[in-house]
Design brief:
Blueprint lengths: L19 H17 L13 H13 L25 E3 L6 E5 L6 E3 L12 E3 L4 E3 L13 E3 L20 E3 L20 E3 L6 E2 L12 E3 L4 E4 L12 E3 L4 E4 L12 E3 L4 E4 L21 E2 L5 H7 L6 H4 L2 E5 L5 E4 L4 E3 L3 E9 L4 E6 L5 E3 L2 E7 L3 E8 L2 E9 L2 E4 L2 E6 L5 E6 L3 E7 L6 E4 L2 E4 L7 E9 L3 E8 L3 E4 L4 E4 L5 E6 L3 E7 L4 E2 L4 E3 L7 E9 L9 H22 L2
Parallel strand pairs: 2-4, 3-5, 4-6, 6-7, 7-8, 8-10, 9-11, 10-12, 11-13, 12-14, 13-15, 15-16, 17-24, 25-32, 33-40
Antiparallel strand pairs: 1-2, 17-19, 18-20, 20-23, 21-24, 22-23, 25-27, 26-28, 28-31, 29-32, 30-31, 33-35, 34-36, 36-39, 37-40, 38-39
C-alpha cells in the first residue's frame, strides 16, 4: 500500500484555512510576544516629575537664567532633558533631581519659594553669585544634606529648617542676612553651621541634642543674650562667636574633648572663665576670650590656648575702633568694636548700586576680601571712615617698547576701583610700569599688574618694555695656600669687567692666575677682560724659594777662593 507524504504547504482544509493545531501555535506565539513587551512604550524617555521640572524653571526664571555663565546645556530643554542640564545631577534612573551645583554662575535675583518641593534633593550649592532676598523655608526637603549660599548679597530672613533631619552642612556666610538664626532642634545630623559676617540678631538657638555638631561660626553678627549650654556636644571642634553683643557668663566646656578652638572676643561677656575641657585638646594660639569684661584670673592652660600671657591681657588693655557712617553706602557693624593689643577689627563696607568706596580714617590700612574690610595691628583708638562716590574718572594706559598691554588706551574707571592690566613683553624684554593713580606702585600676579591704590582722580599708567641685559657668572677657584676675593660665584652684566683680589698665604707666592681673559697686577689684583660668557678665574700658589746669603767666616772663605781662581787664570795666560 502506498502512503503519500504531504508537505507543510499542503496542510489546508477544504476551505483553504489553516488547521486548528497550526492556528493554536500562532496564537501562543502572539500571547508570548504581547506578554514580553507589555511594559514597553516605544519611544518614551524617563523624566523627572513635572513638579520638579517646574521648580527648576522657577529657579531659572527668578535668577536671570539667560545671564548665567558656564552652565551648559542651558535650562531650556524639553521635558525629559532636565537631568542633562548644566549643574543638575539626577538618580541613576533619571527620575528625580539629587543635586544642583550653580557655584559662581552669575545668578542674579531671588531664590523661589517653590524650591522646598525638591523633596529628594541632597545638595544645593549656589555660592559666589548675586542672590538677594532671604532664604526660603526649606521644610519638606527631608533629603537635603548640604546647603551652600555663601558670598552672595542675601539681605532677607532665613526660613525654617524644621524637619530637615538629613541636613549636615549649612554655609551662608558673607551675606547681609537679617532676622534670627533658625531653630536647630531635631537636626541630629547637623555637623557645620556657618552664618558669619551677616546682620543676624536675636539669640543663639538651643544646641542641645546636636551630638554630631563639629563647627559653629556665628561671628560678626549682632547676636545678643547668653551663650547656650554646650553639654553633649562631644564632637564640637570649633566655636566662633566673636564680634557680637553676647552677654552673661561663658558656659561650661566639660565634655568637649574634641574642642580645638573657641573665639568669643569682642562681646559683652562677664564673670569667671570656665576650666579648659578635660582632656584638653585646645590648640595653642587658637582661642580668644578677650576683649570682654571677664573676671581676671591666673590660668596657664588658657594662656597657652590663647597664645597671650596672661590670657586676660586684652580684657584689661584694648582699643576702640569706631565706624563712621556715610551717605550712599553702608558700614556694618555700625557700633564701635574693641580690639586687643596688636588686634584687629572687621567691617562689611558696601556701596549703593553704581557707587564705589575708598576707606579713610586714622586706623591702619586694611585689606579687602569681597566686601569685608579687615584692619590688623591696632594699638590705639581709631576710626574707619568710608567715602562713597559715583564719579567716573579717565585713566589712560600707554606703553613704550616691544610688548603688548591689554587693555590699552583711555578707560572710564569708577571711584574707588583698582586698575588691572596685563603686560606681556616680547622675548628678551621685561615690563615695568609707572602710575599717577595714587601711590606709584603695583601688585603683581604673573603678567598682571594691579594698581596699589584705588582711583580717586584722572590719572595715567605707562608701561615700559626694556631689553634684558644678559648676566653671566664668574666662578672664582682658589688652589691650596691662598684665596680669591670674592670667593663665591657672582654675576656680571654682559660686556662688563670686574676685579678680583688674589692673596697667597704666608710663605707662599702667586704661581698663576688664569681665566676670563684677565691680567694680574703686581699688587695681586686680577682684572677680567670683557665678559660675554660664563667663565672661571683660577689661581694657584707655590712655596716661596729661600736664597742663602753668606755672612762672617764663610764670606771670607768665599772671597779667598775667588782670589785664588782669578790668580790661577792670570798664571795660565802668562805661560801661553
Amino acid at each position: 500500500m502506498m502512503i503519500s507524504r504531504r508537505t507543510p504547504e499542503q496542510h489546508f482544509d477544504g476551505a483553504g484555512r489553516v488547521p486548528r493545531a497550526t492556528s493554536m501555535v500562532g496564537r501562543l506565539v502572539r500571547i508570548l510576544l504581547s506578554t514580553a513587551f507589555a511594559g514597553i512604550t516605544w519611544g518614551a524617555v524617563a523624566a523627572i516629575p513635572a513638579a520638579e521640572r517646574q521648580v527648576l524653571l522657577d529657579l531659572y526664571s527668578a535668577t536671570n537664567g539667560a545671564g548665567w555663565t558656564g552652565v551648559t546645556p542651558a535650562w531650556t530643554g524639553a521635558a525629559g532633558s532636565e537631568c542633562a542640564w548644566g549643574g543638575v545631577t539626577c538618580d541613576a534612573g533619571q527620575t528625580t533631581v539629587l543635586e544642583i551645583n550653580l557655584s559662581v554662575r552669575n545668578l542674579v535675583g531671588t531664590l523661589p519659594t517653590s524650591i522646598n518641593q525638591l523633596g529628594n534633593l541632597r545638595s544645593f550649592i549656589a555660592d559666589g553669585n548675586r542672590l538677594t532676598g532671604g532664604i526660603p523655608t526649606l521644610t519638606g526637603m527631608t533629603a537635603l544634606q548640604t546647603l551652600n549660599l555663601s558670598r552672595n548679597q542675601l539681605d532677607g530672613n532665613i526660613g525654617s529648617w524644621s524637619g530637615l533631619t538629613s541636613l549636615q552642612t549649612v554655609l551662608a556666610s558673607n551675606n547681609r542676612l537679617t532676622g534670627s538664626v533658625p531653630a536647630l532642634t531635631g537636626l541630629a545630623a547637623l555637623r557645620t553651621v556657618a552664618l558669619n559676617n551677616n546682620r543676624l540678631s536675636g539669640s543663639i538657638p538651643v544646641l542641645a541634642g546636636l551630638g554630631n555638631l563639629q563647627r559653629v561660626d556665628l561671628s560678626s553678627n549682632q547676636l545678643s543674650g547668653n551663650i547656650p549650654t554646650l553639654t553633649g556636644l562631644a564632637q564640637l571642634q570649633t566655636l566662633s562667636l566673636q564680634n557680637n553683643r553676647l552677654s552673661g557668663a561663658l558656659p561650661s566646656l566639660a565634655g568637649l574633648s574634641g574642642l580645638g578652638g573657641i573665639d568669643v572676643g569682642n562681646n559683652l561677656l562677664t564673670g569667671t572663665i570656665p576650666a579648659v575641657p578635660s582632656p584638653n585638646n585646645l590648640t595653642a594660639n587658637n582661642s580668644r576670650l578677650c576683649p570682654n569684661a571677664l573676671t581676671v584670673s591666673s590660668d596657664a592652660a588658657w594662656d597657652t590656648a590663647t597664645g597671650v600671657a596672661p590670657w586676660s591681657r586684652d580684657c584689661s588693655v584694648n582699643y576702640t575702633v569706631t565706624p563712621v557712617a556715610a551717605p550712599n553706602g553702608e558700614i556694618f557693624p555700625g557700633t564701635p568694636q574693641l580690639a586687643g593689643v596688636n588686634g584687629g577689627a572687621s567691617f562689611a563696607i558696601v556701596p549703593n548700586a553704581g557707587y564705589g568706596v575708598v576707606v579713610g580714617g586714622n586706623c591702619p590700612a586694611g585689606q579687602w576680601v569681597g566686601t569685608s574690610y579687615t584692619i590688623v595691628f591696632i594699638n590705639a583708638n581709631c576710626n574707619v571712615a568710608p567715602v562713597f562716590d559715583n564719579t567716573m574718572f579717565a585713566v589712560t594706559i600707554s606703553s613704550t617698547g616691544p610688548g603688548t598691554v591689554t587693555p590699552i588706551g583711555l578707560r572710564a574707571i569708577l571711584f574707588g576701583s583698582y586698575v588691572s592690566f596685563t603686560a606681556v613683553p616680547d622675548p628678551g624684554y621685561r615690563a615695568s610700569a609707572q602710575t599717577t593713580c595714587g601711590v606709584n606702585g603695583f601688585t603683581f600676579g604673573g603678567n598682571q599688574f594691579t594698581t596699589a591704590s584705588p582711583v580717586t582722580a584722572d590719572c595715567s599708567i605707562t608701561v615700559s618694555f626694556t631689553a634684558i641685559t644678559p648676566q653671566f657668572t664668574i666662578t672664582p677657584i682658589a688652589g691650596a695656600h691662598g684665596r680669591i676675593s670674592p670667593a663665591a660665584p657672582f654675576q656680571i652684566a654682559q660686556g662688563g669687567r670686574t676685579e678680583l683680589t688674589v692673596t697667597p698665604d704666608a710663605g707662599y707666592v702667586i704661581a698663576s692666575v688664569t681665566g676670563c681673559a684677565g691680567t694680574l697686577s703686581s699688587s695681586g689684583k686680577y682684572v677680567t677682560g670683557v665678559v660675554n660668557a660664563n667663565c672661571s678665574v683660577t689661581a694657584t700658589f707655590a712655596l716661596a724659594t729661600a736664597v742663602a746669603v753668606p755672612t762672617g767666616g764663610s764670606l771670607a772663605a768665599l772671597m779667598l777662593t775667588l782670589l785664588l781662581v782669578v790668580a790661577a787664570w792670570h798664571q795660565r795666560r802668562r805661560h801661553r
